[in-house]
């Protein structure tokens, strides 16, 4: 079994069945031998973007994420205090707090991040896309 931590774009493109989601990423997500994980940080990022009207069509997801994750076979990982400290002190030129959190959580969970974000891919080996 391989642990996969979805980044925010991967979650949104999975929900929308969008062609932007890479083939390898889609295959990995549907592979029932893999443990697919969504970070609470991604839920937070989606909610912020929705509030700032930078993202539409996510109201149902935000209202029903727990039910939808169960339906899709996803688990959710919380932000642990140690994750917060590690993300804040991580020595990276990349400053996006959500990306930093995913990198830290992927290390703790020994999970590959499902992302097309080159800034994440540079600091999290084994990403899937």
Give the terminus-to-terminus CA distance: 18 Å
Mean pLDDT: 95
Helix vs. strand class: alpha/beta
Counted beta strands = 4
- C-alpha Rg, in Å? 14 Å
- Strand arrangement within the widest β-sheet reads 3-2-1-4
Helicity, as a percent range = 40-55%
Q: Estimate the strand proportion.
A: 5-15%
The dominant shape is globular
Number of helices: 7
Order of helices and strands: EHHEHHEHHEH
Largest sheet: 4 strands, parallel
Question: Which consecutive residue ranges, at least 5 long each, have pLDDT under 50?
Answer: none
Explained architecture:
- With 129 residues, the protein is an alpha/beta fold.
- The protein contains 7 helices and 4 strands, in the order βααβααβααβα.
- The protein has helices at residues 8-15, 23-30, 40-51, 59-72, 81-89, 97-109, 118-121; strands at 3-6, 35-39, 74-77, 112-114.
- The chain has a 4-stranded parallel β-sheet with strand order 3-2-1-4, with helices on both faces.
- Helix 5 (81-89) packs across helix 6.
- The longest helix has 14 residues, at 59-72.
- It is globular.
- It starts with a strand and ends in an 8-residue tail after the last helix.
- The model has no long low-confidence stretch (mean pLDDT 95).
